[in-house]
Amino acid sequence: MRRPLLAALLATALPAAALAAELVVVESSGTSQQPGQTLDDGAELSLPDGARLVLVSAEGATLTLTGPYKGKPAVSGGGANGGVVVALSTLVTARAADTSSLGAVRAANLSQPLPQPWLVDATISGQACLPAEGPPVLWRPDAKAAATLTLSPADRSWTANTPWEAGQPTLALPAEVPVADGEAMLFEIGGETAAVTLHRLPASVSGDKMTAAWLMAKGCERQAVALVGKK
User: Fold this and answer.
1) Which residues, listed in sequence order, are joined to residue 137 by a DSSP beta bridge?
2) Residue range(s) defining the domain that contains residue 171
3) Are the C-beta atoms of residues 183 and 153 closer than 8 Å to each other?
4) pTM surpassing 0.90?
């Protein structure tokens, strides 16, 4: 996807929003705040030395605070990192400029767009994000042949196998499959294993801009691109 096209897409998919009154905690370390918690964007925060707090706003802005810190974490109007539009545009630019071998692998992974934002690519290790409710829906870019999916948690405390029919790019896991927020799952298809850490969208995150910013903060860039590009 070329940068001008992405910029136009983002401008269409993410219309201007009113100033947000709340921020949502994405990550927290050394503080009393918990992921998914909402904070008043005008309230004063005090973080001790070594603490770290990542927040997103309804406009899609992301703010990372590190202690010692005392002040109001206002990011209204797309402040902080400039918002999700800038973040995704920067991602595309960095992908095109990265020509190292490792960068080539990352670029190849990112270059295959997801057909829907809430799909988990079962063929690539990394981060994947799930909606607030429902079981994971897996996706594979090559669905020509039938396959067997073997899945287990990272500690391999249990293992399950299920057929993946030819011509079916997606596979919804049964609702009884235990999935914990932040848990790494192993997906094996055709002898290749991908370790994917799953993150569940907090109910406090709403709207495309805030959701896209949350996806970016969790490392789910391809899902963020799919979200803002959805029809």
Assistant:
1) 172
2) 114-228
3) yes
4) no
